[in-house]
Design a protein that fits this description.
The complex is a heterodimer of chains A (179) and B (66).
Chain A (H helix, E strand, L loop, with lengths): L2 H34 L3 H35 L9 H31 L4 H7 L1 H23 L6 H7 L1 H11 L5
Chain B lengths: L18 H23 L25
The chains are: A mainly alpha (179), B mainly alpha (66).
């Protein structure tokens, strides 16, 4: 990938990932308000907002973060499977995205249930979003830390790519000769 | 994913699996086991199903944001 394109992909990845983390923080605050607040109308409003927040903010940002992350990795010498930190970050991103997609169903049902609930019943609905948003926040924070610190270590595949014999094979292939 | 391609990371010493990877794998494994334990022994109290009524799916009241 050309340097300009590489930086554009990286910029997009950082923007989507940080945006996702920020949206999760907002969702977490909403869940805290819904689970602990005393105002039923506020709690109901929060539950109603969770559904569009999930569909129009969280899901698009998570998918965009995943796609731009894969593009950034494949377009640079980091690769997708060469370094443990890239693999672990991909795994965290995938798990967070899949759990979010599965959880949207619960959010839809919780929003619907909140319309007819009140008092303690309404507060109890806020526990599940609170736990899931808290988990998502921790996972995304760990992914962010991994991206910044980039702990060393190559995978077996990454070490194989470093070997001189592999380098010679690539050189032969580029030159059109049999490896 | 912060770009650090030009920082010389290609020359890092790589011998076997780093300790942080093993520790992360153990922590991840414990978390997965805990989650499985909750799913199996939590009486099915986790997941989308717990937001459904006993008789079937909860009836949606419409989506005012659409």
């Amino acid at each position: 990938m050309k340097p300009g394109l590489r930086r554009a992909a990286l910029t997009a990845h950082i923007a989507f990932s940080v945006g996702w983390l920020g949206a999760v923080v907002v969702f977490l605050v909403q869940a805290v308000l819904a689970a602990t607040g005393r105002d039923d109308r506020l709690a109901q409003a929060v539950f109603l907002m969770m559904e569009p927040t999930a569909w129009f903010v969280l899901v698009p940002l998570s998918l965009a973060s995943l796609v731009t992350g894969i593009v950034s990795a494949l377009g640079t010498t980091w690769g997708l499977w060469r370094h443990y930190w890239v693999v672990l970050k991909l795994l965290l991103n995938l798990v967070a995205t899949v759990v979010l997609l599965l959880y949207t169903r619960t959010i839809n049902l919780t929003s619907a249930a909140a319309r007819t609930s009140s008092g303690a019943e309404l507060r109890a609905l806020g526990l599940s979003p609170l736990i899931h948003a808290g988990g998502a926040f921790v996972v995304l924070l760990v992914a962010l830390a991994i991206a910044v610190y980039k702990p060393q270590g190559r995978t077996r595949y990454g070490r194989r790519k470093l070997r001189p014999d592999h380098f010679m094979t690539v050189c032969h292939k580029v030159g059109g000769k049999p490896a | 994913m912060i770009d650090r391609q030009s920082s010389g990371s290609e020359g890092e010493p790589d011998a076997g699996t780093p300790r942080w990877v093993r520790v992360s794998a153990i922590v991840g494994g414990v978390l997965v086991l805990l989650l499985l334990g909750l799913l199996l022994f939590g009486g099915g109290q986790h997941g989308p199903g717990r937001h459904m009524s006993a008789g079937g799916e909860l009836v949606s009241q419409g989506q005012p944001w659409r």
